[in-house]
Amino acid sequence: MIEVAPDELKRAVEVQHGGTATLVQSVPVHEKFEGRTVWNGTVHIFDLKDSPSGAKRAYAWSYEREDGRRRFFAVLHSGPIDSPVKAVRAAIVAEARAGK
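The structure assignment produced for this chain is given below.
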């Protein structure tokens, strides 16, 4: 899997959620469902300052789609989403519901 620079993910967080993002840590996440890998890559954890949402943290990652374009994710730390793994799970569920 080709990873993008943390600066690109920082921009994605700031564009999607406002405020200023500061990289805290990068962690590997390998998510499986029914024994199959559904996502495997690095999630970047950002502290978030002055976001209109009031969130203090965000999780960001990306992947290259089949058409060669890159899909960026920036998920806020909120409610049940309190870790990189839960952020990835929430994004997978949201995409499945949207039929993507």
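Interim note for the steering committee: Residues 6-98 form one domain. The first helix runs from residue 6 to 17.
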